[in-house]
Amino acid sequence: MDNYDLEKIDTRAPSSTDKEKTAKIIAELDDLQNMLYAESKHAILVVIQGMDASGKDGLIRKVFGNLNPQGVTVHGFKQPTQEELAHDFLWRVHLHAPAKGYIQIFNRSHYEDIIVTRVHKLINDETANKRMKAINDFEDLLVKHNNTQILKFYLHVSAKEQHERLEERIHDKTKQWKYNEQDFVEAALRKEYLKAYEDCFENCNKIPWTIVPADQNWYKEYIVADALYTTLKKLKMQYPGLKK
């Protein structure tokens, strides 16, 4: 995709999609992940971005929840600490890059440092452009020097669906712990966020982004699970034999 106009990209699944595929794919991921861990020749980094209430947590639970936790780790990047701010912006990210044999999931990632920071005018365009170049170099380093496969997903939720999910956090007792008044403030900045994401997609696409329609949970689970399955199968992994 050469031009990214998120307002023109659908947030719902195509009507022809088979809902039953996801469970089968997720079941097959278990053996592939075991093989990845046993062979220890490749690393997987899954980057998940999206606005509040786009369903990042639920997606991770459904797609990765049945895999062996010994070989899967999740890390979310929140507001930087004072120690992290004293270093370059990728310092805290590199600490969590995946080792060979592991699947590392970033629930929000290094891209927050060119998305949130731009929306809230914490950095200017010049700094953002320098950071995007640094991100491209960082991802290139992981790919070329640690056999890392990087999958990048943006969960594309509509304004209507996002608002309904945020409202649900107020009224549903099982989701009230997620409620944060600031989320509604961020949602009101939707146009600014979409613009920042579109620029990110244009300039950090050497490893392509998958824009995932996220209004229906089952569909985003299918897209991510299928992409991971396809990536693992292409590695043509084998279980190691007896150690000599």
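the 2nd protein, sequnce then structure:
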Amino acid sequence: MYRAEHPRPQLRREEWLNLNGEWDFEFDFSKSGLARGMSAPDAAFSQKINLPFCPESSLSGIGYTDFINAVWYRRSVVIPDEFKGRRAILHFGAVDYYCTVFVNGARVGDHMGGYSPFSFDITDFLKDGENIITVYAEDDTRATDIPSGKQSHEHFSFGCYYTRTTGI
């Protein structure tokens, strides 16, 4: 169900991991997840989401179309042995609108801007065996200081404005 092809064929490398597919997922309507310990590798998540689809999309397995202030994602990754000794770059095509990325509970970086790709070098945060990637995404489409394009600021889509897209 997920998209298995390389997202940017012109930049394709021979050794890469596609992180699309099933991730743990949690809504954070009150934006209190950091204080509640959601960045910890063993935090409790109540749902699954199918990436690269946003939680508003039925293809994500969630299909929640009301306003979402913030969300959390988590996935376990084992780095293949043939990648050892190389730099590990975690790349996102976009995360709407502000995000913080954690690896094994450590904060590795933040990004603001829902329309641009970005990357973090996570090499120094990885360990042998299982690694936990956690992503916090915050997106208030009703905030006037955040670009929202044609995402609807009303409950329903109208005119040329469509259902919001939150997160990865």
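The mean pLDDT is 88. DSSP finds no helices and eight strands in the chain.
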